[in-house]
Amino acid sequence: MATNLGIDPDLLKRALAVGGERTKKATVNRALREFIARRSQARLLDLFGTLDSDGEYDYKSERSRE
Q1: What is the dihedral of CA 28, 31, 32, 33, to 10 degrees?
Q2: In degrees, to the nearest 5, what angle opens at C-alpha 56 toward C-alphas 41 and 44?
Q3: What percent of the chain has pLDDT over 70?
Q4: Deepest of 13, 45, 52, 61, by most Cβ within 10 A of its Cβ?
Q5: What percentage of the chain has pLDDT greater than the value 90?
Q6: What is the largest CA-CA distance in the chain?
Q7: Tens of pLDDT along 8-31?
Q8: What is the pLDDT of residue 66?
Q9: What angle do CA 21, 2, 40 make, to 5 degrees?
Q10: Are 4 and 24 a contacting pair, CB within 8 Å?
Q11: How far apart are CA 38 and CA 44, in angstroms?
């Protein structure tokens, strides 16, 4: 899917310098993957503390091999 984007040339130049990719296309694709990964991780962090825990659950007994 070919797409024309108005990307800030200074940002792209900086991304090329720090990202280590050889092409603009590879740099943009990597940046998009990293953006998605960070946003996904942030959503997981929002879930912490939202689940109820069972104080009587003995997780150590579940680890035994007997």
Answers
A1: 120
A2: 5
A3: 98
A4: 13
A5: 55
A6: 63
A7: 999 999 999 999 999 999 999 999
A8: 66
A9: 60
A10: no
A11: 10
